């Protein structure tokens, strides 16, 4: 499995009361170690950007890495503001299972969704069929079917799910 990190809130480090931050080293190795994860993986820290700063060139670089790797399972950590757009950008890559995830609060915070989201993404990348997915808010959404609801601080389907 290949893990690509691009930055985002999940890897942010805050320094002072004015909320100045920078993107730190990837937190996935620490999270996997604490959780006892033994899945073999290769980690590439591709970018260290807030997703609002991601450009088409950044997405093209991510696309290139996903397309050219021999790995068929790819987990990507990404900022939540543009994670849905990036997932859609990667949809034309065949024969790969690509799962993007992020966090609404940094992984280094005591209260964070990061660890849960990474666990969900790890399970998804190993069990879903080929395609591109976003693992957030306890769901695994196919790319193109999800949006961030900033007001509710969650991810939701673009078309409401039918009631069971």
From TrEMBL:
Q: What species was this sequence derived from? A: Rubritalea tangerina
Its lineage opens with: Bacteria, Pseudomonadati, Verrucomicrobiota, Verrucomicrobiia, Verrucomicrobiales
* Record Pfam families: Asparaginase
- E.C. code: 3.5.1.1
Instruction: Please verify whether the record's keywords include Hydrolase.
Output: yes
List the SUPFAM superfamilies. Answer: Glutaminase/Asparaginase
Q: Residues in domain L-asparaginase N-terminal? A: 2-151
User: What InterPro entries does its record include?
Assistant: Asp/glu_Ase-like_sf (IPR036152), Asparaginase/glutaminase-like (IPR006034), L-asparaginase_N (IPR027474), L-asparaginase_N_sf (IPR037152)
Query: Which domain of life does this protein belong to?
Result: Bacteria
- GO function terms (MF aspect): asparaginase activity
Q: Which UniProt keywords apply?
A: Hydrolase
Descriptive protein name = Asparaginase domain-containing protein
**Which PROSITE patterns does the protein's record reference?**
ASN_GLN_ASE_3
């Amino acid at each position: 499995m290949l893990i690509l990190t691009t930055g985002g809130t999940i890897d942010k480090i805050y320094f002072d009361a004015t909320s100045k931050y920078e993107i730190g080293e990837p937190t996935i190795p620490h999270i996997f170690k604490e959780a006892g994860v033994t899945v073999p993986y290769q980690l590439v820290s591709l970018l260290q950007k807030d997703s609002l700063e991601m450009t088409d060139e950044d997405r093209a670089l991510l696309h290139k890495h996903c397309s050219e790797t021999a790995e068929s399972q790819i987990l990507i950590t990404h900022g939540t503001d543009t994670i849905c757009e990036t997932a859609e950008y990667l949809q034309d890559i065949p024969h790969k299972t690509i799962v993007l995830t992020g966090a609404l609060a940094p992984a280094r915070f005591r209260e964070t969704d990061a660890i849960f989201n990474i666990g969900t993404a790890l399970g998804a990348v190993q069990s879903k069929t080929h395609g591109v997915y976003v693992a957030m808010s306890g769901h695994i959404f196919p790319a193109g079917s999800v949006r961030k609801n900033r007001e509710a601080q969650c991810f939701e389907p673009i078309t409401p799910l039918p009631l069971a």
